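fyi for ur records
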Amino acid sequence: MTPAVRAFVAALFSEIDRLKEEVADLKKRLPKTPQNSSTPSGTQHPHAKPKRRKRKGGRKRGGQPGHAKHDRALRPTEECDEVVPLRPPKCRGCGVGLEGGDPDPLRHQVFELPVIEPHVTEYQRHRLSCSCCGKTTCADLPPGVPTGQSGPRLIAFTALLMAFFRQSKRRTALFLESLLGQPCCPALTVKHQKLATDALRPTYDELAGQLPTQTRLGIDESPTKEASEKAWLWTFVAGTFTLFAIRTSRAAVILGELLTENFRGIVNCDRAKMYWSLGRLQWCWAHLKRDFQALIDYPDAQVKRLGHDLMRQTKILFREWSRCRDGTITRKTMKRRLKPVRDEVESLLLRGRCSGNPRLVGMCRELYDHRQWLWNFLDHENVEPTNNGSERSLRHAVIWRKLSFGTQSAAGSRFVETMLTVIDTCRKQSRDVFAYVTAAIQDSFENQPPPSLLSDP
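which gave:
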């Protein structure tokens, strides 16, 4: 064997050894799933999810024999738009003609949509000449009449089609023209978008000004796009309102901008570092549960054991919290029952911190050094152990983002954050969002401030 061949074979063996090490390292890495990480559940194929161990019953799908029938309640006769009396002309037995009426006839109601046509009002502005000086004067439009051709209900409906019902501008224009008989094009929906943003922006600014005064906030963020740049959609969930903000940064400076230095409340959040500057946090135990599941799924036996021990205490915590939330036990009782859980969790974190295992040391040190951020919910009445409120508020926005791929301009971002804020706040306050947006646009035409979302509806 020549020296060149020997060198070539040695290089091959060296490459094989390197690849073996790489394969072994990849095998050690934990596959990311929604159960052990923050990976969205929608990224996992439904058939890939582990099947639930649920015993099959002998019943077929659908309604079971003997179940109560559910009929749509009939409207009172006097509320019907039209009543058609039907009388049989002759007897079905002998054929003799029938007369009279039934005091209690069988009632059958048919619901139908009316023919939808736009309501068009024409204002004829007369221009008259003065017999004295010869100047002409044209009549002004009445207060509240828009200078354009779109009324407040049409603008509000267009804005909600795009923001609430997640339709594109082209589909929104097609819906208005095809089903409502309203001439429209994508350019007009952009104009409506701007009018709606301008009308609702004072409401948005009023809610944003209340963020620093809140005693508790749930905060979360999700990536999105603004034109070609990466951006983040932030959500701030307060007791009676929700505020969304789209920014091109995920840094703590955004929190300083919106919460200002006057904020003294507690924040429910995940363990992202930009929240640490706020000081008073409640870390989400739902996120921690996924982290502990990741330890259980890790191949190292020491890591697995600590993961199982932490998961056992986490399940006790959620069981007691659920009983407190539904009123079975008081918060004082929950705090007393979770005292040994708290002691055990902190002991386990200290064990992981001192284990010398690189998979455990960093995470356990972080949790142990900031262990008060795990238990603030025990001492504050309106604080929960999870950040589920913020996750739920983001759900509609995330679906919108996946359908629209973000916004194309800063103006589009202002429309989205404003509309999402108004929509979710109206939902929390049980307000009619269409009525509210319509009223706000009408007020803007009359140069009046919109109705406040900080007062009772």
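The chain is about 45% helix and 10% strand. thats all i got for now
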